[in-house]
Amino acid sequence: MPVFIEEVAFGSTNYKTLLKLRHEVLRKPLSLELSGKDTATDDKEFHIAAFENESPIGCVLLRPISADTIKLRQMAVSDAYQGIGVGAKLVRYAEALAATRGFKTMEMHARKSAQGFYEKLGYVVEGDEFIEATVPTIKMRKPLKTS
Predict the structure, then answer these.
(1) Distance in angstroms (rounded) separating the CA atoms of residues 59 and 93
(2) Are strands 46-52 and 124-132 parallel, antiparallel or unpaired?
């Protein structure tokens, strides 16, 4: 399974396909729709996608929130590709990209069910659990390695 990861341009054909993936993985299981609120800042974010044979199988967005901090959000991996390292590859690529663009810290609002996944990648919980998009969520953070 040759998986490659690259940045995707906002508004491109691949971006539009990733919107469908985000809906299928993140919203549909909760009986929700991917809303305008979810995509309102997409034009100001970095879009990263994982592909197998030209087909998008995963994605993540990075939203700059200050000069030093970037937020990882809308992480989605197709069900058939979960648990085999695609998500970890996406996160590592996102961290490297953010570091090369001068960010020093990555943070996120992670679903509580994904806490262990992110802890294995070096993220730590900050604060108390809260509800976001109807699911238990936690804020997590990690300093980025800069070269």
Answers:
(1) 11
(2) unpaired
Of 10, 21, 30, nearest to 52 (Cα)? Answer: 21
pLDDT tens digits, one per residue of 47-57? 999 999 889 99
Q: Is the pLDDT of residue 121 over 90?
A: yes
Contact by Cβ (8 Å): 141, 124: yes
State the chain's mean pLDDT as an integer.
94
Work out the burial of residue 73: count CB atoms within 10 Å of its CB; fewer than 13 is exposed, 13-18 middle, 19 or more buried.
middle
CA–CA dist 47, 59 (Å, integer):
7
Q: Whole-angstrom Cα distance, residue 94 to residue 100? A: 10
Those residues whose C-beta lies under 8 Å from the C-beta of residue 33, and which sit 6 or more positions away, are 23, 27
Six-digit token pair at 22?
A: 């985000």
